[in-house]
């Protein structure tokens, strides 16, 4: 589902887990490198994929003005620096279609494939959706 060019895949390694330190409570929270997420104030679910990125790759990205992070309307990519150890992560977020969730539940819980009206859903990352995901 997530493909990248050869230069990107050579420089990006999967992190087994992200570690986030909650500064208010001084607790360490482990987050898997691939998971589904739904913000309480949003109707959509998101498929989140995190990869650790070496420092030299970040420098190359910052110096390359022609590099485009946005690949399509239903996918959002950004970079995050973990504060406690200064590691960098590439975060790939994909909007999950509400009808695909309904279809998955019907098929896997009840064994039914219901022929719903399958119009093409327009899934677009708005500025608000991007801001919500930047604060996961």
Number of strands: 7
Estimate percent helicity: 25-40%
Beta strand %: 25-35%
Coarse shape: elongated
Describe the structure.
A hairpin with a 7-residue loop joins strand 4 (34-37) and strand 5 (45-53). The radius of gyration is 17 Å and the shape is elongated. The strands form two sheets. Strands 1, 4, 5, 6 and 7 form a five-stranded antiparallel β-sheet that branches. With 136 residues, it is an alpha+beta fold. Residues 1-16 and 18-28 have low confidence and may be disordered. The chain is built from four helices and seven strands; from the N terminus they run αβββββαββαα. The protein has one domain.
Provide a concise account of the structure shown:
The protein is an alpha+beta fold and 136 residues long. It has helices spanning 6-11, 55-63, 98-110, 127-134; strands at 13-14, 17-22, 27-32, 34-37, 45-53, 75-81, 88-96. The chain has one domain (6-134).
What key phrases describe this protein's structure?
alpha+beta; two-stranded antiparallel ribbon; 4 helices; elongated
What order do the helices and strands come in, and which of them pair?
Layout: H1 6-11, E1 13-14, E2 17-22, E3 27-32, E4 34-37, E5 45-53, H2 55-63, E6 75-81, E7 88-96, H3 98-110, H4 127-134
């Amino acid at each position: 589902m997530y493909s990248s060019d050869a230069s990107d895949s050579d420089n990006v390694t999967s992190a087994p887990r992200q570690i986030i330190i909650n500064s208010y409570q001084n607790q360490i929270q482990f987050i898997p490198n691939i998971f589904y997420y739904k913000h309480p104030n949003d109707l959509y679910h998101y498929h989140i994929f995190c990869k650790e990125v070496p420092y030299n790759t970040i420098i190359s990205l910052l110096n390359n003005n022609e590099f485009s992070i946005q690949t399509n309307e239903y996918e959002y990519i950004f970079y995050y620096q973990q504060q406690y150890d200064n590691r960098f992560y590439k975060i790939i977020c994909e909007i999950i279609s509400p009808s695909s969730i309904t279809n998955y539940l019907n098929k896997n819980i009840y064994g039914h494939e219901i022929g719903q009206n399958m119009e093409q859903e327009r899934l677009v990352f708005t500025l608000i959706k991007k801001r919500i995901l930047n604060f996961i």
